[in-house]
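Why does residue order matter? Because the sequence determines the fold. Keep that principle in mind as you read this record.
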Amino acid sequence: MPDPVPGRVRTAAGWAAAGCVLVGTAAVTVAVAAGPGLSSGYVSEAGITGGAFASTYRMGVFVLAAALLSLAAALPAALRIAAGLLVAGAAGAVLSGAVTCSAGCPLPPFEATTPADLVHAGASIAAAGATVLAMLVVGFLRPATATLRRVARGAAVVALPVAVLVALGLLGVGRGNLVGGLERLLLAVCLGWGLVTALLLTRPRPDVPAALRPGADRPDASAAVRPGASAAVRPGASAAVRPGASAAVRPGASAAVRPGASAAVRPGASAAVRPGADGDRESAERDEQVAGSRTPV
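Structure:
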């Protein structure tokens, strides 16, 4: 099935995704470093209302959401399941940036929370979870190029157990350096996978199957359909009717009368077998019988 999106559009989306990952990561890193720090607390604490770099953090989150959308657009049509997961992740990131948590970003079961805290945490978890699932789809469940599969599998092997540990830490330990460090590691793996995948999708690769290659909407020049292919498979020209087919099957010329037919039937053959000679032969035989029956004068 041809790819409905032109290759140049997917290439541009790949470049946009890579750029957004870099810009968004830089903005979030600056805000986190100035807020809770690079090794303690939750990353989301950098966006608390009133923080010195809260707007920088939220801007970075929105840019990362744009990166997920761009990456979804850059993926080949055959990976539409992964693209759908990335779109869901982008929606979660937008909600996470729009709804900020309260001071300390408290979460149950160890701290009292507000509805905004729950919405923010749920959206953030959904965004990260959808991105990890997209890795798994690209790496294991849907067809992709060998390079895309290797990158996705390598990232998923790290991200999946880390995500499980983050969930267990939230439920069993609560806020602290352990969960904060695991959260940062998970985000780093997701961002790294997104950046590498986006860059891979910006360049043509000889090992990309036609159905997955950006620009796969171009006419396929496979031997079965390109001009000059065997007429048996050329569109609109069955072997029985193509120009230059054997005389026995060429349209508009029955085998008995077609020029170039076998000697038994082509024009110029003996009268007994010449096209249209059946009626003439019968007439000649009748004439001979009449002539033989006459008595010479």
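The chain has a mean pLDDT of 76.
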